[in-house]
Amino acid sequence: MSDFRFTLISDGSSDRALMPLLTRLLEEIRPNFTIQSEWAEFRNLVRPPAKLADRIKTAVELFPCDLLFVHRDAERDPREARRAEIDAALKELLREGVRVPVVRVVPVRMQEAWLLVDESAIRKAAGNPAGRIDLALPPAHRIEEIPDPKERLFQALRTASGQQGRKLKKLRLPVLRRRVAELIEDLTPLRSIPAFIALEDEIEQFLDQPMNEQRN
Known about the structure:
Elements lengths: L1 E8 L8 H12 L3 E7 L12 H11 L4 E5 L7 H17 L6 E4 L13 H7 L23 H13 L3 H5 L3 H11 L10 H15 L2 H5 L1
Parallel strand pairs: 1-2, 1-3, 3-4
Helix pairs in contact: 2-3, 4-7, 5-7
C-alpha cells in the first residue's frame, strides 16, 4: 500500500462534504493507495489569503500534499468560467516559480447536487433508513439542471426524517449533509454527470503522470 495525501481548498466550510466523495473516488481509481485527507482551514490565520492564487500557495505551504483539489461551485456561471479562474491562478503562481499539483473540482450549481444521487444515503443520514415517503429526487442525468440543489437536498432530508414540528426544526441539516456524503457507497450514478466525469478524468490523468512530473 502507498500513502497518498490530498488537501481540499473549498469555497466554504460546508464544502468539506466533498472530502468523503474525493476519498472514495481516489480509492476506486487507485485501490493500492492509503488515502489521507486534509481540508485547508484558513479562518484561524491572522491574515487569511483572499486571492485564489494566494489561497492555493498557502494551502500547499501549510497542508503539504501529493494532490491539491481546488473546489469552486459553478453556481450561475458556466463551469468552464470557474475552471478558467483556477487555471489563471495557477499561471500566476507559475510565473512566481511555484508549481502545484492541482485537480479542479467544479460541480455545476453547487456541490449539494452530487449528494442527491443516493436516496438510501439521504434516508440513513436523516435517521429513518426504512422510510417510504417519496423524496422527489431527480434522475442523476438531470441533477445539473436543478436551480438550488442545496435547498433540494435539505428538503429531501426533512422529508426523509419523517419528523414534524419542533423535531423537524431541530434537524441539523449542515451536519446531515456531510453525513450523506459519508454514506454514499456507489459512485456509479455520479458517472452520468458531466462535471463528475470531468473530475474523474482529471484525477486519472494526474495519477497517470510519472511521480516526478506530479511533484514538479
